[in-house]
Structures are given as structure tokens and as C-alpha cells.
Amino acid sequence: MIQRQELVELIINALKEINPPALAASGIEPTSDTHLFGAQGLFDSIGLVSLIVDVEQGVAELTGKAVTLADDRAMSQKHSPFRSVGTLADYTLALVHAYSG
Amino acid sequence: MRIPDSNDSPVVLVTGTRKGIGRSLAEHFVRSGARVVGCSREPVDFTLPCYTHHLADLTREEDIKALLLTIRKDFGRLDVAINNAGIAALNAAVLTPTGQLDRVMSTNFRGTALVCREAAKLMMRRKFGRIINFSSVALPMLIEGEAVYLASKAAVVAYSRALARELAPYGITVNVVGPGPIETDMVRGVPADKIQRIVDRQAIKRLGRFEDVANVVDFFVRPQSDAITGQVIYLGGS
After folding, report:
1. Predicted complex ipTM exceeds 0.90
2. What global pTM score does this model have?
3. What single string gives the DSSP state of each residue in chain A?
4. Which residues pair with B52 in a beta bridge?
């Protein structure tokens, strides 16, 4: 079963590959605490699309499971699971564990 | 068909390949050297080289996700997605049962949208893709007795045109073909006089042919059509 740290690394690698302007300008090394979306986030809603798709595809490669990160539950949560690398890893891990497809 | 940046033959998904236009498109792309993936709710009674068939109910999200996951595992890519699957509904609007309304919208629009969504995810990484959705000449003609069917196709057209804008940065085009009446099981279920009235309203007054559809699809798919997106071509000159 995939571990949280693997997902954090997957997300960070995807982040580096996309290299959004805010990340490139900051020059910082992304970590689990790096903000993705929101006031201090690296992405706007359009930019976040590429990251979510890359993470979904990466999860499919690692686990063979077709999870949908932008599902109804994610969209209705008070605190978006797309806030940071860590929260996205947590949400992804929960979906992978719950996956029954 | 030649796709840029590929050493292998392209991978083409066609939905609703058990018969009619879908089957003819599957055969067409196999002849052109593509690897074709087809799907339908019921098994097919044919085999083709380089063709794999999957059972999938496009009203079920899990079936669609499983289908695209299989394509990812088997081929690692998807070049073309053709959303042909659809069902007809002939009924006076005021007599249309809710269940029929839900089935038509679910298959024709929701199924198309979900296949687009999952196909686009697979196409985005390679920065190349061609999505072709289906409308009908009955839509611009606003044929009586097809209100729900036409609404589902209008939704497909609006969705496709908006999606074309969203996916353009990823090198993915989204276009729509709207065939006129063709000799398929779907059309054979429509009264002959009604079909004739549709044909009479077209500029080209004949039934459509499978080759007419393949011709438009080929136009949308070819690499030179990378600036053709968000377009709708109705056959027969409606």
C-alpha cells in the first residue's frame, strides 16, 4: 500500500515539473508545508488543473487506481484539500485507501 | 492518419462501437493503421486486428474511469477520443417520462462529458489530443418530438466549445460532428416520413453515409487541424 511520504514526493515532483511562476520566483524548495492554493498558494484555479491531473496520473502509475481528486467531497469541504502539498497528500491517501474500482 | 511525436501507431478510442457509426469508425481507424479501443454496453459480434473491445456503460462513472485506466495501462497514451455513443428519444415533450429524460441526458451528455474529462487527463501530458463529440442535424433544425434528445445534443455542443478553450493550452482540440440521418438502427426506429422531412430540409437531399462522418472526423484528427477547435460541422448542409 502506498505511503503518505511517497505521495508527498509525487506531488513535489509534479510541482517542480510544472514549475509555476510563483515557485520559480521564490527559489524555495517545496516541502509538505508548501501552499498550493489560496492566498499564499502557488497556483490559481486554472494552474491547479495541471497539478491535479499529474498527481492523478502518477497515482494511477504507482497504484493502478483511478482516483478523482477533484470529486464532490473535495469541492464541498470547508478547508480545501488542495491547500498545501501535505493536505493534498492526505486527501489522496484517503481516496487510494477507499478506492474500490 | 499520422500523429506528431509518435513512433508507434496512434491510439483511438471510439465509444458505442457495437454497430452503426461507431463500428464504421472503428473499422475506418483500424484500416488507417491505428490501435483502436471500442466500448459498448453489450458484446460485439465482430473482431478486428488491432482492435480491443470493452464492456462499459457510459452512464456509470466507474466504467468510464476503468476504461481510461485500461487504455493508460495498455498503451500509456490516447491520441483521439470519439464520443459516438448515444441514444435517441422520440416523444412529445409533454409526454416524456422523467426516466427517459434522465437516460438520454445521462448517456448523451453526461457520458460524453465524463469521457472527455478522463480522456483529456491522459492526453494532457503529451500535449496532444483530438476529441470529437457528436451532435445531430436535428439540433439546428429543432425537430418536433425530439426536444429531450436535442437538449442533450445542445449540451454536448456547448460543453465541447467551452472545453475547446480550456484544453487549447494543452494541444488538445475539441470539435463536434453532426450527422444527418444515416441507415443505422437508431434511424431505422424513426418513422420514414419523419426522416424524409429532415432530408428535405437539408441542402444535400440524401441520406448520410458512414464515409461522410469518417471524412469530417479525419479532418478534425489530422495534425494540420491543430488550429481547428470548438467547431461544429453539420453534414448535409442543414
Report:
1. no
2. 0.91
3. ---HHHHHHHHHHHHHHH--HHHHHH-PPP-TT-B-BSTT-SB-HHHHHHHHHHHHHHHHHHHS----SS-HHHHH-SS-TTSBHHHHHHHHHHHHHH---
4. B37
- pLDDT, residue B38, reads 98
In CATH, the number for domain A4-98 is 1.10.1200
Interface of B with A in 115-144 (CB under 8 A): 118, 121-122, 124-125
Mean pLDDT across A33-52: 88
Q: How many CB pairs under 8 A join A and B?
A: 25
The residue ranges of every structural domain in chain A are 4-98
Question: Residues B79-110, buried b or exposed e (16+ Cβ, 10 A)?
Answer: bbbbbbbbbbbbbeeeebeeebbebbbbbbbb
Nearest to B138 by CA among B110, B179, B176: B179
Minimal C-alpha gap between A55 and chain B (Å): 11
CA atoms within 13 A on the CB side of B238: 23
CATH 3.40.50.720 for domain B11-234, yes or no, is yes
For residues B213 and B182, the answer to whether their CB atoms sit within 8 Å is yes
